[in-house]
Amino acid sequence: MNTLLQDVRYALRTLGRRPTFTALAVICLGIGIGATTAILSPVDVFLLRPLPYPSADRLAVVWNTNAERGWTELDLSVPDFLDYRERSRTLDLAAYDGQSLNLSDEDLPVRLLALQVSHNFFRVLATPPVLGRGFLSENETPGNARVVVLSHRLWVNRFGGERDVLGRTLRLDGEAYVVVGVAPAGLNFPDRTTELYLPLSHDGTESRGSHFLSTVGRVVPGATLAQANDEVATIGQALAETYPATNVGMGARAAPLWDALFGEEFRQASLIATVAVTLLLLIAAANVANLLLAQAAGREREVAVRRALGAGAGRIVRQLITESLLLGLMGGVVGIAVSFPAVDALVGLMPAWFPRVDEIGIDGRVLAYAVAVTLAAGLVAGIAPALQVVRQDLRQSLQDGGRGASLSRRGGRLRSAFVIAEVGLAMVLLVSSSLLVKGFLKLRTTDLGFEPRSALTVRADLPAAKYPENDDRVRFADRLIEALAALPGVQSVGITSLLPLIGDSRTSYQLEGEEVPAGQSPIVSFRSVTPEYFETLGIPVLRGRGLHASDRSTDVRAVVVNEAFVRRHWPEGDPLGRRLVFGGGPREIVGVVRDAREVDLESAAPLPMAYFAFAQTPSSRLGIVLRTTGDPTSLTGAVRSVVLALDPDQPVFDVLTFEDRIAANIQANTVLAKVMMVLAVIAIVLAVVGVYGVMAYSVTQRTHEIGVRMALGADRRDVIAMVVREGARIVAVGGAIGLGLAAIASRGLSLFLFGVKPFDPLIFGAVALLLAAAAFVASYLPARRASTVSPLVALRAE
Q: Which of these, 625, 666, 436, lies nearest to 537 by C-alpha position?
């Protein structure tokens, strides 16, 4: 212990005598450790930390599958869910479906996100309410379903955490619900936006062809997930045989709940970020190792004298390793301090709907990892210089008079190797991040097929209790359009059943007169829109006509399709006048509009779309679009006032400009690109610093040689060229290695490269030029300093 304390005290004195060196080393390690700790925090939540439910490894989901159609994760219908729940002996299966409700009380009406859940939902998750009870089996009967369980967050924020909330009546969508329980604080299922839980009621009239229920199940004691998977597959096959009209070709599979919450994109992005930050940490450690090598060359005589006085190689190595570990610990302190704001910034990049995003932070697990990374970084940075020192020729070191010449010559190759590694790793990060950023920019500038500028979007959900009939919804929509269109600054107003880029609604259909085998009907995305919708969004009608105000009769229903739909069925023909048969009957194609990206931005091309007349197929969910002459956000208050004037119990929500909605839609896709770009910038800075450090040290060690060259007639340009060539040689080797590694690594990014090829010659070439330019500057500065050396001073220094 005394020896260790002596080593620590000596190391502290040594580091204190070299404040510039110590500060540089600590900053390099601090950046690497801080970035590693920050990135590990979400990776720990997404990949490593168990789900916050008792025996979470026994939780599963059940999906429908259809091999012929390529469906592997299809939600269940209500009748199918009931069959799976009743027949399964290996799973206690619950179901849920998201919805929104209007809460009307003494304050302004608000919209709350809710889950409709089967009665066994809380039992399956093993998270009983902390107050009151959950749901009973009879609550799944429509007449007994007017009960509600509050989320813990809503209970505290809106009801003050009062225990007498039980039995209180809430008006939800205009109907009275009785509060029977409060969910536990940790239940953020499927994410933290859930505020209410309602019973999932069913009356036996639900269609097997309507798939919208998500599931969560618990494998019963004595069974395994593999057995549950086999069982649901058997049940699915039996249902397909029993109900061929809706279930033909349909199967089922069970998978861990973790797979449903964190899909392939989460796993890939977490792995990519982990690898990237590990590369950054290695670059930082290589930089510190180079600093330690340079310092070791200056301490060659000191080490030689200690060895001559009897100090063993192991004692010297331990002393030097102690110094590097102290540097690592100081870097760790800086890194952990940096990681707290870095984690906050990282969480700020993530959408609120990311699973478990509220759990991301620096906790004991992450701190333990940070300490381990700190010690490892210090050890990795110090072990090579320490071994290099003890391998020195003792006699030659004493003869050199303390100039470190012998160690400098031997350490030169090692320092160059470290810089080559830094440049190569930085190249990988820079290429990868550039590819991701290019994909993001391509996604951001994708042709939407509509005009998002100067447009305000608003959502409202009409409660069925207050607007039970289709005519009620149509009248409200007509009055709303008239009132909004009268607002100053509003050019036009359109309503759709689903705003672009917030989801999809699909239905099956067939061409009139065409025979389609059961279960093989094609699928199309659809919207119910008012006649003004196309004009308001700037979607041009290419053939025929748009939807008219006269499209109200249900005798002849109209449908407008897009170009993608026409390409599917009549690439060379005329679709006008043809009829499509949907579940509600035939519809006649009256027009063709330009393709618009209504569903998502990531698909290679816009999906086939069908637009129904809102007056003929009204929806209780209203997506309102206003085209304005000025700033769209200035109309937010007026829009709310108009809606409340029409219905004092009707709130609006999700009020965003179209441009903000697009930004929110691609927010999740940009997280990895932004993280990788930050890491790449840090990596390139560290690599350039490494090149500069090696060249500056090389110039210092070659002062005598440079003096001799200049005394013999070499001019400044010769000296500059000599030093720059040496730096260019190092960078060229590192860059070539890095380009090869980047070509391999880029293939793993394909999931996130929207419209960008993994090997993009422009990106690879631009990055190589950027790195070459940065390395030239890093080499030129020491080279210019070397060219100003006076031959007389250089020879006298020798």
A: 625
